[in-house]
Amino acid sequence: MFCPFCRNPDTRVVDSRVSDDGLAIRRRRQCPQCHRRFSTTETASLNVIKRNGVLEPFSRDKVVSGVKKACQGRPVTEGDLAQLAQRVEETIRATGASQIESNDIGLAVLPPLRELDEVAFLRFASVYQGFSSLDDFEAAITLLRMENSSPAPGA
């Protein structure tokens, strides 16, 4: 790690802490040459394998923009979308994989999106679950109705 002040190639870690969301490590460092301190944030890299085979870094912003289309005209806020993207990233990182296919990200979006807004869920699911007819929509709606009418566990 280079010192950002004097460019010395050797720095020492003074303190390490896990970030509030648990996805990164914040390190306090000191340069042995100029004695100045600075902080770094370290995260494990997560790459997405696109349909055409190209790798690119995971982006919460891309998750939000993809879900935003399904939420168009629905009572969903930017904050709701940001939380959804964070939950998706946490779910993906919990697998321990350093690479994930873009389709798997779409599938990881479905559970939190369903909790957020069922209409947006159906719109999004129609793409990622490959709905090809009205029967697919009807089956999904029937399943949602059945699950919504069943009593909650422990009730």
Structure characterization notes:
It is a single chain. This protein has 155 residues and is of the alpha+beta class. Helix content is 45%, strand content 18%. It has 5 helices and 6 strands. It has helices spanning 60-70, 78-94, 102-116, 118-128, 134-149, and strands at residues 12-18, 25-30, 37-42, 47-49, 55-57, 99-101. Strands 1-2-3 form a 3-stranded antiparallel beta sheet, with no helix packed on it. α1 (60-70) packs across α2 (78-94), α2 packs across α3 (102-116) and α3 runs antiparallel to α4. The termini are far apart. 13% of the residues are buried. The model has no long low-confidence stretch (mean pLDDT 90).
Compact overview of the structure:
The protein is an alpha+beta fold. The protein has five helices and six strands, in the order E-E-E-E-E-H-H-E-H-H-H.
Annotation keywords:
alpha+beta, 45% helix, 18% strand, 3-stranded mixed β-sheet, single chain, 155 residues, 3-stranded antiparallel β-sheet
**Hey, roughly how much beta strand do the residues contain?**
15-25%
What is the overall silhouette?
elongated
Q: Could you say which structural class the secondary elements and strand pairing correspond to?
A: alpha+beta
Largest sheet: 3 strands, antiparallel
Distance between the termini: 55 Å
Radius of gyration: 21 Å
Tell me the number of strands: 6
Uncertain residue ranges: none
**What portion of residues is helical?**
40-55%
What is the helix/strand order?
EEEEEHHEHHH
Strand arrangement in the largest pleated sheet: 1-2-3
- Count of alpha/pi helices: 5
Mean pLDDT: 90
